[in-house]
Queue: 3 jobs
Job 1
Amino acid sequence: MTSGLDLVVNLSEFTYKQRKEIYGEKEPAAYVYQVTKGAVRTYKLLSDGRRQIGAFHLAGDIFGLENGETHRFTAEAVVDTTVRLIRRESLENAANKDAVVFLDLLSKTTRNLEQVENHLLLLGRKTSLERVAAFLLEMDQRSAAAGVLSLPMSRRDIADYLGLTMETVSRSVSRLRQAGVLDFIGNTHREIVIHDRRQLAGFD
């Protein structure tokens, strides 16, 4: 998904409206995707009707690269989102022929695996406050903007990602605000100024 890759394969670009499904669980994994603008959530619906979000994909991230022939999760646009599509077969052929493409794909895949591992640790070992703090730190590190953390996802999304209730997420964020770690811009509570990243990391 670099300029080198652009020269080797043909990329198509599509825009999906907010909450629009990009692909569904168990659908054929014929394409690999890269977010160019917006955000994507990948999730599973559990047998009891609950939703577990596995990952959030932001600008520059790739998703939809599977080991098998079908998708394990459903992918959905969090906000109006533009993605680039490349046929999986074309990407595999390009990676086999071009070392630059292969190394870039390996780097992005490794980064995705690291995020998955961090998510598993977060769900298995951390308290609710630690989970929220870790999430905010992750989003801050992945954000391209300086100074203000702009969250595209809702509190419901965050709760379903962290395995918490919306009320617990709200209480944890309020505790961090009361501690002077962060504050909000506007009424949506999605624009966050982090005053003390070291202190926030201490809650992680």
Job 2
Amino acid sequence: MENKIVEFERFENLEISDEMFVSCKFVDCEFENCTFENLKLKGCVFTECKFLKCRISGIKGDRTQIRLTEFADCLIMGVNWSELMTETQIAIPFDKFTNCTLKYNIFYSLALRNFSFETNSVTGSTFGDCNITGGSFYSCKMDDTEFVRCNLSKADFRNAMGYKIDIETNKIKGAKFSFPEVINLLESLEIEIE
């Protein structure tokens, strides 16, 4: 699909795989029960769109911008969110996740200050060089999700499980954690606890 502009439309039960979208623009559109797999987005823009109960995997972006977009009850796999940033790198590509499962996602160099991942499952994912000051992962299932060189100051990890945070490379001053999961923070120190 090339050079298409779509505004204020609702799409249901779409299944699109292994296609390329070039210079397409979607504004204030809603996608429900759709499947998007291995799509290449080149020079596309998605603004104020909603994805409900969708399955999204292997999306690749090149000069593509997604902004003010909400995801609810979605399964999102293998997305590198830094490829979907605005050119100015100011706005993050998502506005809200609600009851989503995010697997094998990459969040790199994103400004996620005060962003809430509550009610979501974020597994097998990586946060690198992100500013997540004041962010919330309260009660998130985070198996094999690691944080590298992030600012997690004042972030809320209470009742979250499975995260990997290296206390030597991340800033965690004022962050909140729950016992017994907080013990995992000591792994990087290579000490024994009895």
Job 3
Amino acid sequence: MGRLDGQSAVVTGAAHGIGSAIARLLEAEGAAVHPVDKDEADLTDSSAVARFFGGIERVDVLVNVAGGVVGQVHAPIEQVTDEAWDAVVDANLRTTFHCVRAVAAGMKERGYGRIVNISSGAGRSVSLTGIQAYASAKAGQIGFTRQMAHELGPYGITVNAIAPGFVLSNPTTQRQWESYGEEGQRELVRSIAMRRTGTPEDIARGVLFFAMPDAGWVSGQVLSIDGGHQLF
């Protein structure tokens, strides 16, 4: 018997990496999972979001994973264009806003909901990539999480965030890892108390905790899953 039997869940950014691991774990725990990635719906477009969620009868659990650096690398702030900034903020923060807005009314009507936003250690500190918009958008997700916890809590809806550390989860993070070289990789691992990088499954297990019915008095929290990196 799964801990999410009878629950309906949406996981965004589910094509690979962290999103895929979350979708698999929630499904293994009995949830009917509706995965969505940019190939299925452009979550930066409010009309596309409305169409996607309009095809789902009920959402008990929403996990916002969609985001990333959209192919960008660091540039000095004076060289960052409006378009580059907007692309990263839209991919991370706007998608989260759109999806939470889409499920809020139904969750309020039923008096139950679990929302988990995947932020980043960059939102609590600085981005290892140096991408200013990414750090800002991830910090914005944390602020949005807290505000939504305050607003939706009276309706039985919890809203929490996870701030992952360095997880080798997709081609982008793999390229980032390789760019450090052997010495840079050793330095990064030495900065982590557990002396290893994370896995998508590490993050998924944290999401499962927030998503369970038993976590009904945990809201507005930001959980760093980073192997103890934030200790340093």
